[in-house]
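Quarterly update from the structural biology core.
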Amino acid sequence: GEIFDTILEAKVVTERWRKHYNTIRPHSSLNYRSPAPETYFLRQVANA
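Predicted structure, tokenized:
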């Protein structure tokens, strides 16, 4: 675990982790691709 000195620090670190998890980190359920490009692709297909 991590101990934060302030609420602001906790929010910044949490948001950084969330962005990494949802845009960069590969996910096994997506055949080890990151979710952000996958979501963009699905939106393009849906709007075609």
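The chain has a mean pLDDT of 84.
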